[in-house]
Amino acid sequence: MHFQSLLFAVLFAATALFGQNSKRQFVGIELTEKGAEIQVSDGKYIISKLSECIIQTAFIPKGEAEKSDSSHAVLLQYQANSWEFQDLQTEAVKEVKSKMYILKSGAIGVKILTQPFDISYFYKTTEVSEARGYYFEHTPKIEFDLEPEEILMGAGARSLGMNRRGFRLQLYNRAHYGYETHSELMNFTMPIVLSDKGYAIHFDNPQIGWLDLDSKKENKLTYEVIGGPMRYQVIFSENWKDLTTSLTALLGRQPMPARWTLGNFSSRFGYHSEAEAKQVVAAFKKEQIPLDAIVFDLYWFGKDIQGTLGNFEFYRDSFPNGEKMIADFRSQNVKTVLITEPFVLTTSKTWKEAEQKKLLGTDSLGSAFRYDFYFGNTGLIDLYKPEARVWFWEIYKKLHAYGVAGFWGDLGEPEVHPTKLKHGDKWADEVHNIYGHDWARLLYNGYRKEYPTERPFILMRAGYSGSQHYSMVPWSGDVNRTWGGLKPQMEISMQMGLQGIAYMHSDLGGFAGANNDPELYVRWLQYGVFQPIFRPHAQQEVASEAVFKDEQTKALAKAAIELRYQLLPYNYSLAYENATTGIPLLRPIFMEFPTAKWSFSETETYMWGPSFLVHAITDSMSSSKEKVYKTNLPADASWFDYHTGCLVVKSKVNMTNNGNYNVVSTTKMLDYIPIFVRSGSFIPMSPVVQATENYRDTAVILHFYIDPQAEETSSFIWYEDDGYTFDAEAQGAAKKLICSVSNNGGTCTVLFNPEIGEKIWEKFFHFKLLIHTPDAPKSIYINGKKAAFKFNKAEQTILIKDYPKLKIQQAGLKMEILW
Hints:
By secondary structure, the chain is of the alpha+beta class.
């Protein structure tokens, strides 16, 4: 009771420091099945509990009916009859002649102060307070208070730096051609804000608007929109991983991708003919550079860039045997991905049909809305008409029957979307930001119905909150082919991963312009090994494919691609982690090391999964006289240099005076970028294969890194399935090896515990174990039996001679290393 009184006294004091809505008068409060209805002078609040750490609030202005708009993003439903109600009258409350009501459930709750009116949300010791809350000033707005030093992230894909506080950001998906280090508006905006104070807010309304992240320096966060439901969810957490897990529980998680999508793509704008595409694939095979897919831009359905959008069929002059070409590629383990766009030009083969069947967005009189843009005079497929969705899906069904393995949806912002265009009873601005999202939903739902065992590959440029739920794989748009274009790519992927979109990636090598810079190309691909999708893509003036580079560049690009394939079992396991928890593959350092506050400003170093710290190189070697690259490594761990295999820094040793990190220098060279491995890591790696179809988990080497003197515990799940079946694990067609370590500085205990589905024929894991450690142990025991081993001092590795390959059956295995 004393603690409770103290808590509410603290909450009241905090409210006094922040803003309140002095014009709004409290009328009454009532508990309902949905939650709580709070009547005020200008409307009512409906506050619901969605989970143990998520609260939803909707405000219905006076005179308006409660909107029945279902959410375009939120999956969770309210928990019925969940609030405990308290009428709390403390001395502090009585002094201001007010009343305080508390809604509480577990660790989360809502505090309502009646005079002056204020609502705030709390979770343990974290509080989020409305300032004016809902108000109308030219447009509907919602306002929250911020703490003076609070760091804000989110708002979708932008190039601004990790802390986005101080910007007023438009919520309107728009392509930014040739962007570099600063872009305030890009192709994937989202009404999500994340705070370093342990919470996120999702404004649950797709209509166009603005997010003002304290641009006036008044410690205020303001959401502004043209209309629609004034509804938001507040998500609380004690750490960044849990915050992302909770956010993706709210908005959905990315299903497992097909294994081939983690391989190398051949892509450019574009391949003009069947003969040209075959020459490209043959070149990869000749050079023995691994390849899993080829992507066709718009020339597959037309000779020219302009005048052909909407054809949706092979241009037979250039692709006389398109279906056979796809089959031939497939026989070489190369998948085919085709571009499609939602525009139907008046010069296209489908214009007349689309117009006559009323499949396009309309003007106010109901006629097809025609307008000009770069590609020609056009209409836009109306995804909000059921008949248009059926028509569009039938096109994809036909292409799927050709053997197409994945689809690329381009220009889906939509690139040009006139305000006066109507989609049924809605105007363009009401659905603009969800058009790409609903396009992905169309494809995803089509696959689930027609091809339920397949995992779709849906590459798209624009989307909305929760698009990951529909297997969308977005990319960061038409970035400039310059060092300035490379610089923001890590930030964009980190930010999107925090917001639930884990597969955001860039056109490797850069897209826009004819800049032929071999060093830039190599650095972009070396970074690309550690981004979710490995897809070089560019305008055709300079080839994007490694096979067409000079010999040195080709060799370095090949080495990067081969490393990508070696990491296949690790990367696939990261995909599984993302599918089950929402935690992104590419993540900020502070997600793995919460005490590393210094890393909030890091935009070129990041974590790839729990194990790798990657330092992307975003400047030419000639741009500085420095002979080394300097990397900040969190001091909460010991670190190995991946390239040498040697321990380079021990936990808590040689920390800088500026923070909880160590600085490690790496000699400048073009061969590779600085990569470090965290002690306690398990990293399954494969021999190089020419395509993911050739991957076999029995050929894997499991690398285990351990600093004998570090005190740590960690675990990793190595996940395997057939690589293509949707919901393989749920069907009993998957297996996992749970690898865990506990090291106390003298004894290291490693446990391997398998979980093997009933449909898996081989009821075991079979692999070679390679231990990376700087010191030879006194002895090693396998399941209690002493085992002979060989320590290589130069390479700092151990091989267990008695067990050249470990066979982990369902009983599991215990290994003890004694130093």
